[in-house]
Amino acid sequence: MSAVIEARGLGKTFRTGRRTVHAVQDVSLAVSAGEALGIVGESGCGKTTTARMLLRLEEPTAGQVIFEGEDITHRRAAALLPFRARAQLVFQNPFDALNPRFTIRRTLAEPLRNFGIPEAEHAARIDAVMGRVRLTPASAWLDRFPHELSGGQLQRVVLARALIPGPRLIVADEPVSMLDVSVRAGILNLLRAARDELGLAAIYISHDLALIRYVCERTVVMYLGRIVEEGPTAELISSPRHPYTRALVAAVPVPRVDQDRAALPIRGSLSDTPQGGTGCAFRDRCPHAMPRCEAEAPALREAGPARRVACHLEEGAPS
Amino acid sequence: MRAARAAWRFLRSEPFAFVGAAIYALIVVTAIFADKLAPHDPREILRVGRRVARYLPISPEHWLGTTSSGRDVLSQLIWGTRSALQVGLTAAIVVVAIGTLMGLLAGYLGGWVDKLITRLADIVLSMPFLPFMLVLAALTTPGTTVVVACVALLLWPNTARVIRSQVLSLRERAWVEAARVTGCSNTRIMFVHILPQVLPLAALYGSVAIGWAILAEASASFLGFGDPDTISWGVMLQEAYANQALGRGAWNWFTPPGLAIVSMVLAGFMISRGSEKLLFPKLADK
Amino acid sequence: MSLLSVENLQVHYRTGAGPVRAVDGATFSVAAGSILGLVGESGCGKSTLGRAIMGVLPDAGRIAGGSVVFEGRDLVALTEAQRREIRWRRLSFIPQTAMNALDPVQRLRAQMLEVLMERGGLARAAANDRAAELFRMVGLDPVRLADYPHQFSGGMRQRASIALALALNPALVIADEPVTALDVIVQRQVLDVMRDLQSRLGLAMILVTHDMAVVAYACDRVAVMYAGIVVESGPVREVLERPLHPYTMGLTHAFPDVHGETGELVPIEGSPPNLLHPPTGCRFAARCPFAQTRCHEQAPPAVTEGEHMVACWRADEASALRTAAASPATWAAVVPA
User: What pLDDT digit, counting tens, does each position of B159-216 carry?
Assistant: First the structure.
């Protein structure tokens, strides 16, 4: 199946004064219709910047973004309109994602108007999407303002706004991290259902592997702007190959009393890691670092079916 | 309706803003009903018998006495509210319009637009008000238009600055980005999404501009650059000054327009002072 | 005897519309050297409870009833001066955002010395040694005492604020969502620091959190709060494996487990009640799939069986309810008003 969205060697470099920061380097990935890809990593790993480039909210400084076969990497803002209708974003903080002065109805009508949907269709489409996010009866919600809704209800509206133009791609950036535990499952289930029923390509950005496993079949792990590992989510969690992924999996809190409380297989902290240099970016924190890691950055290589790893330890290892 | 109730609640909790708004309200009502409230035609030369009723003191007949040319001071004061409001409101609207537009463009678009507008604002702010107005008045026909134009040209940077900083922070809000994702053009984001959020702040700066404009008009008139045919507080002061009312001790002639101007300027200040808590809640915590 | 025992504590906030009962009957205790997890959703009163125990409520808040007995003294009855004497020395606080505990314009050494010398009465040399020791204790290099807070990463800042809280050897530390803002790896490392301090110093802690997994990892006991009330408390294993309150049962199915089964997650529909006018009956009744008429009419009393406390009318049927609660259909049937 051909990919809905594809990134080829994507990169973003910020210049602040004299310093150059490589926020994202050489990220390649693809997501097909009906598939969900997770991008996982800690804050500052470049996952959000990657997502913003895929949605062209940020212009890449290297590489290409291909959406439904068309290169949109450097397309001008005005010409992005058809793309905008087909690639939507679910925001992290529902309390900030809706215009406080717009009613729910106006919030949902705004994309319809912008994307040139005839006004006669608005009411029906708004009703349908409110049904999809289970805010029914729609009439009870549409004339309210955001401050009258709870976090979970707001996030449903955010999802409805993303779905209403009929997108082919949905990007969700930490879609439940601001919500109470008891309502998180509701949002995740809605996202899953929308993806399955509408055959959307989905990308989830999160620091939470447990959440990613619930919604994504495939996952890429990012560390300091690069993909360090990619694979089917279940496999990635049961047998992580990159030392960083191993630490990440071990660190995920589990709601059980009996669990491994051994020290994490990682040293130092993110802020200690020197940027730049030629070697592997993880070398200073890696329990298995060798002289070679200092000299040469490992490339992201095939490591078995549907798996890629960027680590010298993996080279020559049986896959 | 919701907004009206919120405004009322706010006014009740902020005595400064309440007093300011009350002064404005009093002046608006006076201006609307000026023809009914004024006991005389402000231009009518009153006579006692066959003599012009010059310099009459305060009396039940003339609550604030009369001028050197026998006109009723109270009536002039009341009619003066009209020109004050006219000058004040026009100037305020123009200031708010230019200032908001500039602030919006600079804050939202950033880059060279921002640099250009900020630089321009700095230049304008460094220009002295009165000399600028006098030069402009001397080059054109004196009158209220010049006053309004001056206030507008010199006062917009204040509004633009605060609007710009407000827009800078609004621009980072997720719902602004959401507007972009859902297909809004920059123009639509600026004018449909962001503008309504900054209008209250703009209106506040407008209320300050009203006071400034009235003060400017009074200064211009006092210095003889006003329109002598209008009835305004500034013209009243100028007349009083020209006829040496001060030397004659005719305080009932020059004090009322002076107080009226001061209270108008003060009202604008009080409203803005009272609204600080509303606009900058962090300040109130301290 | 418990180090801290909170009995039927009530905290009200003054608002224009009347008092909000943010905490409306909280009962639990913390044994010396143990970590209690205080878990609940936003607005359930867990942070307010922590602040009330510390005696640092915002102006609009006041303790409206109940007692907080700490080391044999009722903190509610003490004067502010007496409380200040206890604060930091015996009882200290770690806020969610470390930046709230740290002064951004002072080097960490100055901040540590201020506490150690002014409140702790140490001489400069002794205070310097103690500051270095505290930094080592939380896994920071004492060299970094010369730095400003902004030169630290989030995890290091949180460690520094823990060190600051521990400066005067308190018996109990209340930590309000101390790891919520941190990445998983850092979160785990900070939790490890806390567990280490507990075992080495015999420190007792109240860990306020919304995350059941954090409780499972680090706590000995847990108190579950809902709408201002402690609805269930007990040893962590008991509460997690044999929950007695339907809310706790619901929570255990509401979030994913990275290694567990990938069954359907089940949300608890609806939202907590408005604490301005709380319902007369059980506060969870509107969202509870097992609610009966009685639950809507009368608030259930707290009953204790062994160390396990619960406030639910149907607690004696808990094992049957647990089986039913495992099925998504049970929760889907609830249609909150």
Answer: 999 999 999 999 999 999 999 999 999 999 999 999 999 988 888 888 888 888 888 8
Q: Which amino acid is present at A247?
A: A
d(CA B18, CA B11): 5
**Which amino acid is residue A70, in one-letter code?**
E
Q: How far C271 CA sits from the closest chain A CA (Å)?
A: 7
Task: Supply the pLDDT for residue B282.
Answer: 46
End-to-end CA distance of chain A: 25
Same domain for A305 and A174, yes or no, is: no
Q: Do A257 and C252 touch (CB under 8 A)?
A: no
Do A48 and A138 fall into the same domain? yes
Tell me whether residues A185 and C266 touch, CB distance under 8 A: yes
Helix and strand numbers, DSSP H then E, in chain C: 13, 12
Count of Cβ atoms closer than 10 Å to residue A150 Cβ: 18
Q: Collect all residues of chain C within an 8 Å Cβ-Cβ radius of residue A259.
A: 216-217
Distance of CA B117 to the CA centre of its chain: 24
Residue A106 belongs to domain with CATH number: 3.40.50.300
Beta-bridge mates of residue C308? C305
Instruction: Tell me which chains share at least 3 CB pairs under 8 Å with chain B.
Output: A
- The number of CA neighbours under 13 Å toward the Cβ of A162 is 33
Count CA within 13 A, CB hemisphere, residue C265: 29
Report chain A residues whose CB lies below 8 A from the CB of B177: 57, 89, 91
pTM for the complete prediction?
Answer: 0.86
pLDDT (tens digit, 9 = 90+) per residue, A182-228? 899 999 999 999 999 999 999 999 998 999 999 999 999 999 999 99
Q: Largest alpha-carbon pair distance within chain A?
A: 67
Q: Which residues of A touch B171 (CB under 8 A)?
A: none
Set of chain C residues whose Cβ sits within 8 Å of the Cβ of A42: 183-186
Alpha-carbon span C299 to A316, nearest angstrom: 66
Residue A258 maps to a domain: no
Given strand C61-70, what is the order of strands in its sheet? C20-30, C4-13, C61-70, C73-74
Rounded Cα–Cα distance for residues B95 and B100 (Å): 8
Q: How close is the nearest chain B Cα to the Cα of A220, in Å?
A: 24
How far is residue C81's CA from residue C79's CA, in Å, rounded to a whole number? 5
Q: Are the CB atoms for A237 and A227 separated by under 8 Å?
A: no
Helices (H), chain A: 47-54, 81-86, 104-114, 119-132, 151-163, 181-198, 209-215, 233-238, 243-251, 291-295
Instruction: Using DSSP bridges, classify how beta strands C229-235 and C221-226 pair: parallel, antiparallel or unpaired.
Output: antiparallel
Residue A195 shares a structural domain with residue A309: no
Name the residue of chain A whose CA is nearest to B194's CA. Answer: A99
Find where tokens 């700066």 sit: B205
Question: Rounded distance, CA C296 to CA B228, Å?
Answer: 79
Average per-residue pLDDT in chain A?
A: 91
Q: What is the CATH number of the domain that holds B159?
A: 1.10.3720.10
Contact predicate A276/A293, CB 8 Å: no
What is the distance in angstroms between the Cα of C85 and the nearest Cα belonging to chain A? 37
The candidate with the shortest Cα–Cα distance to C142, out of C169, C163, C165, is C163
DSSP conformational letter for A2: -
Between CA A294 and CA C146 the distance in angstroms is 30
Residue in chain A nearest B187 by alpha carbon: A78
Within a domain: A252:
no
Query: Rounded distance, CA C331 to CA A166, Å?
Result: 30
